[in-house]
Structures are given as C-alpha cells and as structure tokens.
Amino acid sequence: MSIALTVAGVVLALIGSVMILSAAFRKSTGWGLATLFLPGAVLFFIIADWQEAKRGFFVCALAVALIFGAGLASKIEDQPGSESVHRTAAAPSARSEPASTAAAPPRTPGDDGGPPSPNQHWMGQAREAGDTERRSEESSGSGDPDQNPQP
Length: 151
What we know:
151 residues
C-alpha cells in the first residue's frame, strides 16, 4: 500500500509542478524561465500570482501529504503484530518443516548447544578453532614425542 501511495504522490507532484510552470509561462516568458531554472523563483511566483498558481500549489501539497502518508503506512506495516502482507510470507507452508527445526542452525560434532568460548568465532567456526588449537599444541612440542619429532 505504501508503494502505491508513493507513486500516486510522485505523479501528483509532477502534475502540480507542470501546472505551476505552465501558469508561470502564461504570465510571461521571464517568469516561466525563472521558475524553471532559478531555485526559489517558484515560491516567489506562487506568492506574487496566487490566483494563477493556487491550483498547482494545492496539487503539490496533496502530493506531499500522500508521500508522507506512505512513509507512515510503511512504518505501521513493519511493526510486529500489525495486519499486513508481510504476515503471510512468514507463515510456514504445509510442506515445510515445523518452525522449531526449520530455524535451527546446523549442528557440528561435539557441539553442546552453548555459546562458543571467547577464543572462538561467533559465526559457527568453533570446529576450526579447535583444529587451530591442536596445531598450535603440535608445533609447541607438547603431546606424544613420536608424533612431534624434535630436530
């Protein structure tokens, strides 16, 4: 819904801008060129020739209100517990696994389910950290002397 409001607001803003620009060119070519190329000249034209520019101004004001409403609608849609289209995308289908097993991360051998120790990476690389610790023990000379011959 917020996308539709945004698109409608942008289209109305373009229509209102063209209405103001055409009113400026109807007044004179100088006003038309000024509103087209000089920033702020549109405001001066709207104030100076309110009777000619008020319809375009109100169309632009409606466009701003629609775009602002689209922003509010997107915030409301994203809140948990709100009735929106996003709710149906999260619902499991009849063929999918139950929600409790579908979201579980893959388990590695020896994983007790607890958090990794401080020297392990949080992204599931606990097994690699264990391999690194074993390599460091082997290179330091601890363990079986037959596996680590001294030069």
